[in-house]
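Job type: complex structure
Entries:
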Amino acid sequence: MTKLTGVGVSPGRVIGPVLQMPGSVTEPPSDERWGTDTTAEAETARLKTASKVVQAELKARADAASKDASAVLEATAMMAADPMLLKSAAKLIATGTSAERSVWEAGSAVAEMLRGLGGYMAERTQDVHDVRARLVAELRGLPTPGIPASETPFILAAEDLAPADTATLDSKKVLALITGSGGPQSHTAILARALGLPAVVAAPGAEAIDEGAEVYVDGAAGTIITDPGDDERAAAARWVEQAAALGTFNGTGATADGHLVPLLANVGSGKDARAAAAAGAEGVGLLRTEFCFLDRETEPSPEEQAAAYREVFDAFPGRKVVVRTLDAGADKPLPFLTDASEPNPALGVRGYRTGDVSPGVLTRQLQAIARAAEGTEAEVWVMAPMISTAAEAKAFGELCLAEGLNQPGVMVEVPSAALTSEAILAHVGFASLGTNDLTQYTMAADRQLGQLAALNDSWQPAVLQLIKHTVAGAQSAAAATAVEKPVGVCGEAAADPALAVVLVGLGVQTLSMSARSLPTVAAVLASVTRHEAQELAALALAAPTADLGRTAVRERLPILEALGQ
Amino acid sequence: MSERKATVASRVGLHARPAAIFAEAAGDLPLEVTIAMEGEPAEDALDASSILSLMGLGASHGDVVVLRADGDGAEEALETLAKILETDHDA
């Protein structure tokens, strides 16, 4: 029995077999040639065999998939054995280039050709790249890239997961996620919370656990134990009872003394929104609009955008829906908007800043939001990501008003925005704290880096100080303008039930999180009075370290233990 | 050399599912069939059994394409393939 320790990012205790996520396929070197021990004919035959294997594999997956997914997979299966692709590769093989490099280059040429056609065809370049990676993996005798296919549920282990991997993850087959790197704010963590899967990140060694080995994962404690014994089995069984007992959220977030704290959901699509409404969410605190744009080579039309937003609005009649304008850049690149060659993308042209280099995208998006808001019963608010100065807030507010969107606000995720919240809120109506980026920028710690997980912790007293400062600035701005200036949190911090109590104690008015986290946060919040929350906030602010703050607050919240959090 | 013109009926044009159905049918034939946009020289015609070539052709709804093949049964084969193009698979 060995124990690996990482950071628990999504609670739950399970036991299951591990399947490792294969590494991504690297580009074969440009000078890779077939050796003297073979011939061009044999090398071409090797490619043909590989293409047949990949085609059969994709075909089998198509047969097992749902109708929509099946059509795409079938087309992808045909690409794997496409005569034009194989012919161009064979020409390169004839000049001495290895089969791997030949099919890689032939695939690139096809992808470029499709990209040049634009629109729908350009979106298919991803499929060609996927097929190319599968062919190279097959030729090299490596496992197929992507989430492993399995008939039975498993624990997925990886170095880290990318947003593209997470799109194909089947939450019915995956019991838990464990990664060797990746921080508490990584995509793996966010995905795990959204799906309600137990997850441990930044646990060195997780990526080296033997394929098929049985392990115990505790997503609250952040531990992974191989060869689990009776204690672990009992703990996993107890979790099943605790999770059932936690039940559902009744739809009204409040402290024990009745101070209302609306609990909202973070959503990324109409489907998410309907699920969040069913889970009792009191509105949407963060609508990520990237879902309309990701994997796109070109900007979606205003009509298409409006239809997508409208789906979300329709799930929340009479409720607030906060739409965040496009947040591209850094870990969310978009080919038509962001520059992939920036040396330091997290500090680069991203979020609201992309408007300076690609004017018009934001205006068209605001027009689409305004169109979707027409005649809807939802209360539509709009906010810009990555605002750093009051001048930016003013410009954004004016853009929104010009399109008839009369409730503009900003994300506070850059420390400068937190420090100048009073000046910023003189121009806009509300602020929403994005604690993931606020933490990364305050601590100067890349949120994707597992090594920096301890710094990248929203419990850091410096982060809490900035949150306190933002609230104070909002109160001053409200007093000066005689208009309420609400401050909410829509980062992952709101989903940590102990930290949620601290945030309320700091004066935050609404909390927005993955719908999965609503029952737990509601239950813990209802166990304290507003005054107690303020005391706990003071405790966390005064703590010398993030860990000591967390421990001190958790000790005063006995309900956490009972809920298995 | 047999030739047969056909108008693309599929509303999304000749890609995705319609292209897959067409390429599969062309691949199942014992003949080599080429496809080109109407008015383009025959030597620039593409392999009709290649889904990637079909996607690159960029034929939209209402475009006329020319199918060509040589040998026994070419006429019948082209007729079968043309029928596929003239059917709206998205309906």
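Summary: The interface with chain A takes residues 12, 15-17, 19-20, 23-24, 27, 46-47, 49-53, 55-56, 58 of chain B (CB under 8 Å). Chain B is about 35% helix and 20% strand.
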